[in-house]
Each structure stands twice: as structure tokens, then as C-alpha cells.
Amino acid sequence: MPVCCDPSDYGGVFDEREARHSLRRFRKRGLDSTAGPMIGALARRGLHGATVTEAGAGIGSAQVALLASGAERGVAYELSPGYELVAAELLADHGMTDRVEWRTANFVTASGHETSDVVFLNRVVCCYPDMPAMVDRASQGAGRFLAMSYPRQRLLVRIGTRGVNAFLWLRRTTFRAFVHDPKAIGQRITGAGFTEVESGRTAVWEWKVWERNSN
Q1: Is the Cβ–Cβ distance between 84 and 102 less than 8 Å?
Q2: Eight-class DSSP state of 117
Q3: CA–CA separation, 148 vs 53, rounded Å?
Q4: Which of 60, 98, 103, 186 is deepest in the core (most CB within 10 A)?
Q5: Minimal CA–CA distance to 120: which of 94, 91, 145?
Q6: CA-based angle 109:113:116, to the nearest 5?
Q7: C-alpha 50, offset from chain centre
Q8: Distance of CA 57 to the CA centre of its chain
Q9: List of domains in the chain
Q10: Distance CA 211, CA 205 (A)
Q11: Do 39 and 31 meet the contact criterion of CB atoms below 8 Å apart?
């Protein structure tokens, strides 16, 4: 059961070893089942020349795909310092080092609230205990599109999340997984002036793309 966790001990779980595993998986299989469709939806609506801010950038695979789909520049936030070197390798492999500003920092609390054409969060809201703060920060920074994926509210997903949390507790890590209310997420985003334009789901995850309403 793939889940995300509380950032208070993020680097202890998502370390360089895990980053390199993710890199091998990306090179073999490509983007995951939510990042790929979200980027496809954004590309259909126009990424040419866009600026992108991503929270929870991992190894930078979404940055690579977004730039390859027409975006001009990216800002990537990632809490784990273990991912920065691996992401640098991937960006260098694709000749994109100078087009992405990498920030090892907490997206919600970091200073400098820049606005980008697109804000992209793939399997990240479930990493954060304070969903309203994460969603509001993303909404404030999205000039045109906000793309986000998160766990579905299904019984099996909740059971799986409880199992993962029990395992984390046994490991004595402070990580915990969160299944935030999708309806509450959507209401905060539409309340911030966005309209849902595309969506999709898998057995575990759902994703949506919202577009800022024109004035």
C-alpha cells in the first residue's frame, strides 16, 4: 500500500537508498499512475512556456516530464536531503539542471511565496498532517493550474493506512500516514477561485486538475 507520511521524520524513511530505488523504477517504468495522467492533462491544456512549482518533488521525475511537455522552468521542494543528489543526477541526464531550482525545504513553511503558472502535488497532501495549510499554500501559489493527487476514502485504503501506521510505530518513527477528506480538499480549492477541469482515479489514489477562474 503506497502512502505518504508526516514530515517530522521524513528523511529517516525517504533516504538516499529509497531515492535510488525510485530512480531505478522510474528509468524502468516511467511515471507513476497519478503523475503521468496529471501531466498529460496539463499538457493538453497548455504547458508551453509555463513556470511550475512542485511540492514533494522526490527524485525530480515529474519535473523532467513537465519540462519535456513544454514547461519552461521549475521550482522543486523536497523535504528529504537524501533526494537532492539523486534528483541532480536525473536532471543532469536530461540536460535540465539549469531549468530547475531545487529547494530542500518544507513547501508550506518556506519563505518566498512565489507564484507559478502551475502548482503540482503528487501524493503529497497525505504527507502532511495540516491539510488546510498545504492546500491553501498550493492554491495561493497557482496562477493558472493546480494539480493534486491524494488517497481515496475507501475502506481498504483506510485499513492499509492503519497497517502502515502500526508498522511505523513499531519502527519508532514519528511518521504517520493521512487520508484527508477529498471533499474538504476540493472545497478549499474551489473556494480559492478554481474550477475542476480534469480528474481520474486508481484503486488507491485519485487526482484532479483545477484551473483558476478568470476575473
Answers
A1: yes
A2: E
A3: 12
A4: 60
A5: 145
A6: 130
A7: 17
A8: 6
A9: 7-212 (3.40.50.150)
A10: 20
A11: yes
Cα separations in angstroms, 201 against 150, 153, 178? 10, 12, 18
Per-residue pLDDT of the chain (215 residues; tens, 9 = 90+): 344 444 556 656 667 788 899 999 999 999 999 999 999 999 999 999 999 999 999 999 999 999 999 999 999 999 888 899 999 999 999 999 999 999 999 999 987 778 999 999 999 998 788 999 999 999 999 999 999 999 998 888 777 777 876 877 677 777 677 888 999 999 999 999 999 999 999 999 999 999 999 86
Q: How long a stretch of residues is the chain?
A: 215
Helix (H, G, I), strand (E, B) or coil at 75: strand
Contact 88, 102 (CB under 8 A): yes
d(C-alpha 19, C-alpha 127), whole Å? 16
Q: Could you tell me which residues come within 8 angstroms of residue 20 by beta carbon, excluding any fewer than 6 positions away?
A: 86
AA letter at 137 = R
Task: Give the DSSP letter of residue 122.
Answer: S
Residues ≥6 apart with Cβ < 8 Å to 24: none
- Largest Cα separation within the chain, whole Å, is 51
- Residues 192, 136 contacting (CB under 8 angstroms): yes
Asked whether the whole model's pTM tops 0.85, one would answer: yes
> What letter represents residue 28's amino acid?
K
